[in-house]
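>> received
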Amino acid sequence: MKFPKLMIAGMSSGVGKTTLTMGILSALSEKMVVQSYKVGPDYIDPAYHTLITGRKCRNLDNYLLSNETVEQLFYKNSKDAQIGIIEGVMGLYDGAQVNSDIGSSASIAKVLKCPVVLVVDGSGIAKSVAAIVKGFIEFDPAVKLSGVILNKVNSIKHYCLLKEAIEQFTTAKCYGYLPKNEIGTLKSRHLGLIPSCEIEDLKLKLECVSKAVEETVDLEGLLQLAYREAEEVTIEIPIYQTLFKDLHIGVAYDEAFNFYYEDNLDLFKELGATIQFFSPIRDSRLPENIHFLYFGGGFPEMFAQELSDNHLMKKDIKEKLEMGMPYLAECGGLMYLTKQLIDFDEKIYRMVGWLDGTCSMTKRLQRFGYKTLTLKENCILGEKDEVIPIHEFHHSKTEVLETNTVFGLKKMKEDKVIAAYECGYLKGKGVAGYPHFHFHGNPSMAINLLQAAQTYANNK
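>> returned
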C-alpha cells in the first residue's frame, strides 16, 4: 500500500507543535478523512485530536511497543483514511535516553519512512534560524526533515526574512507560519494540557486556530509533500483469533477517568470481549452482567468531591471486588480504589476503600518516564519474572497497608539502573498500581486479563 503521511515535530517542548497540529487537523478534516497519531505515551493530546477529526487518535510509542508493532498499528488504523498526521513529542530527537533514539519522534519517523515538518520558534531570531534548522537536518540524515513551519512570527516581513534564510542555507522548504499572539492558547496544569472535556470555550479556540492555519500555513504544499514522499509498503497486519465470547468488560470512563490507549480497548474487542463504559461520577451502579473492571488513569483528584459523594457506585464496586470480580487499575484507578484521597489543599475525600491505604497529592512530580516492570509473582497480568515495558507520570503518593507489592520497577540510563523500587498492589483477583500498560507490547497481557474474566463468568 502507498499511504500519505506527515509528522509535525518540534525543536523543543512548548514550541507550538500541538497548536499547529490541531489547526492542521481541523483544516484538513473539513475536506478529507484524516487519521491522527501522537508519538509517545501521552493521553491528553490524543483526546484533542479525536475531538477535531471525529476519529480515535492512536499512540505511536517504540519503547512500549516494538518497531514492527508500531508500523502494523499505524497501517491498520489508517486503512480507511486518506492521510495520516502525526504529532511529535518534545523535541524531534528527544527520547528515552541520550544514547538511543527509542521513544523519540525521529525514531518513529524513520520506522514509518515519514517526512517531517519541524515547528520552529521564530521569535527574536533572523538568519540564525537557518543554523538551527541545518543542525536538525544534519543531526540524523536518516530522518526526512523536509519542511519548516515557523511560530511566534512578528509580521509577514519577518516571516519572509526567516523563510529566505532557511531556504537559502538548508534543504528544507518553509510551509508558512503562525503569528506571535495568543491564538487558541490552551491552559495547562500538573499533568500537561487541561483535558478537552474540561474546557468550556474549546470549540471557539479550535476555530481560531483552524482559521489562523488556513490563512498563513501552506496546507496544499503540506499535502503535496505527504503524497510525494509516500512509499510503497507491504505489511502483514496480525489478525487476533476470537478466543472469548459473551464477556463484558466494564471500563470506567468520564471526566475523572479517560486515560486509555484505544488500541488496548480494540484488542479486548478483537479477542471477543464487549466494552461497556460506566461513569464513577454519575452512574449509581455498575453495568449489569460485566465480568471484569478496568480503571484507567485520569484526574480523580480534580473530581474527588463528585467521586466521594457517589456512595452507591463506591459500594457496588467494592462489593463486586469482594465477590471476586477481576480488575486492573492504572494510576488514577489505583487512587480511586484506596480508602481516601488527600487533594492539593489537604482536603480528605473518601474513596472506594478496596485498598486499605491513602493517596496524597503532591506538588512535586513523583514518578515520570519509561521503566521496565518485572512481575514479582504470578498475577492477572502474567507469570512471575515476566518483564513488561511501562510508563509512569503522577503527582501523588499512595501508601497501602497489609497488601504485598507485585511490581518491581527499574529506570535505565545508558544501560545502567538509575532507580529501582517496588509498587503495585495485589489483592483479590486483580492488581492496582501507577504504571500504564500498552497491551500490544505483550498481547498475552490482554489474553490473561480476559482469561480471568472468563473464569469469573464461568463461576458466577
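>> The mean pLDDT is 94.
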